[in-house]
Q: What sequence folds into this?
DNA sequence: AACCCGGTTTCACTATTTGGGACACCAGAT
DNA sequence: ATCTGGTGTCCCAAATAGTGAAACCGGGTT
């Protein structure tokens, strides 16, 4: 099957599963809330939480009795981001692109069935940093998501499509695998994808996949706007950026989806 | 003792220990290199690596046979950063400060005996994002480090000082606990710290601690420059930023060092 | 052919993890 | 004061998962 973090790797797997669920809740949670999410019995979950806490992976606020992901994760993640993401390579080209188009620019990678944003440049002046690195989003209704799906080999595409929620965010959201396959064919033909207000009303974007020399999808770059102008105006700059990134990819070997 | 991620929390502890060491190496490493770092026997380390890999915490490049921290960390860290760091609160004030002084601005927190940078604003135009979030540095020879140490209660300061390397990075580096205590007293009196080219030649900075209502150190903000101007010029803006951050801290309860 | 080296696997032994259930605590209801 | 339901913590015999010395497997070298 697919990368699904199934919970079957012994104690470590369980611990990470619990950690993930706590992180997913997105706010400090009490033990009982963790229990509701946890597939493991009370005593087990409790011990797991304890272990994670004194490992610094979780932080327990003694007053409120709530758990939140700890700073040790941030330390470790820096290494991951620097070594395993496209971000360090793409950095200068995203800067260029951002300057050229003046709109918000995203760099994303596929993480299982979701889109994981790894870098971002803000539209114009103020830069709320990091805000997007590490964030995840749906693959079926974002520009970067569709751009990547379009160039995925069938064997990998099928399971990913099977896992989408197909929630209708806006009237334009594509909500069936069949419609999606048609859309992906078009994207493949054109070489780039559009998000025509499919995720958020008023937000449109144009995205292109970053492919390795062997044609494997490594990520995608997008230009997002809430203005009225034609998206195709951004195409040249976008294409230039993606081309340069792909070029620099040369000697980088990147994850195979972990597919076994 | 202190927070030291000792390796004594069962399997999970061992796994995280290994993961940390891989991350610390800062580049993809082969199994044998991990072995050199690992306190555990070959077979154990091997199995740990396997587990971590198919949990997505590590990424194994099949061609080169090297391990690197995986993207799952980035996902989880986003939650940690958003919930457990000062960054979300400080965001707008760092923007202001950055604009006001036009120099590089850092936000850091104490993580054990080290300084952990959680956010950054670049000097002028181009913004190499994230580059610093998650990075660690020495506490005894950075502005933010000294600013935080100065306001640490003795019980917490002692073990931290005991763990510093006291490596002499530049002629100005303070290299003894005694000298450091004198320096910290001055900082405490002044309310802010200077880094007078103690870490890197040509780089100076001024830093102030962020204190909670109860006077606990929560982090520090610094303005760094490689120019010649007097650092004190930045004091007003820096003080303003720190004051506002402290103000917003109000209802936030933050980690106790975990000290037990 | 004998040897070394990094990586992988085996398997009997053992330490850790498991989880049902007991317990302690608190707040509100009776 | 006493009961009661919700939470968080702890125990301990049984079950499981982890351990690690040693063997094994190519593929280079000598």
A:
């Amino acid at each position: 099957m697919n990368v699904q973090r199934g919970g079957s790797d012994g104690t470590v797997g369980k611990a990470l599963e619990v950690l993930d669920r706590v992180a997913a809740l997105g706010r400090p949670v009490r033990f009982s809330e963790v229990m509701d999410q946890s597939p493991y019995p009370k005593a087990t979950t409790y011990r797991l939480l304890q272990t994670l806490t004194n490992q610094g992976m979780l932080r327990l606020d003694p007053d409120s009795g709530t758990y939140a992901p700890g700073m040790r994760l941030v330390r470790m993640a820096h290494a991951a981001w620097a070594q395993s993401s496209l971000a360090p390579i793409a950095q200068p080209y995203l800067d260029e692109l951002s300057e050229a188009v003046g709109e918000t620019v995203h760099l994303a990678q596929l993480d299982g069935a979701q889109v994981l944003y790894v870098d971002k440049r803000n539209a114009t002046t103020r830069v709320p940093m990091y805000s997007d690195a590490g964030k995840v989003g749906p693959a079926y209704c974002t520009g970067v998501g569709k751009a990547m799906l379009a160039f995925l080999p069938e064997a990998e595409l099928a399971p990913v499509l099977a896992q989408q929620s197909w929630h209708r965010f806006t009237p334009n959201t594509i909500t069936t695998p069949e419609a999606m396959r048609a859309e992906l064919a078009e994207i493949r033909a054109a070489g780039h994808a559009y998000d025509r207000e499919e995720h958020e009303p008023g937000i449109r974007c144009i995205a292109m996949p970053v492919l390795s020399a062997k044609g494997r999808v490594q990520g995608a770059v997008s230009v997002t706007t809430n203005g009225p102008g034609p998206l195709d105006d951004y195409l040249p700059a976008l294409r230039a950026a993606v081309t340069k990134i792909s070029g620099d990819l040369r000697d980088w070997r990147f994850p195979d989806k972990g597919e076994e």
Remarks:
- Chain B touches chain A through 70 residues (CB under 8 Å).
- The radius of gyration of chain B is 20 Å.
- Residues 10-11, 30-32, 35, 42-43, 46, 65 of chain B lie near DNA strand C (CB under 10 Å from a C1').
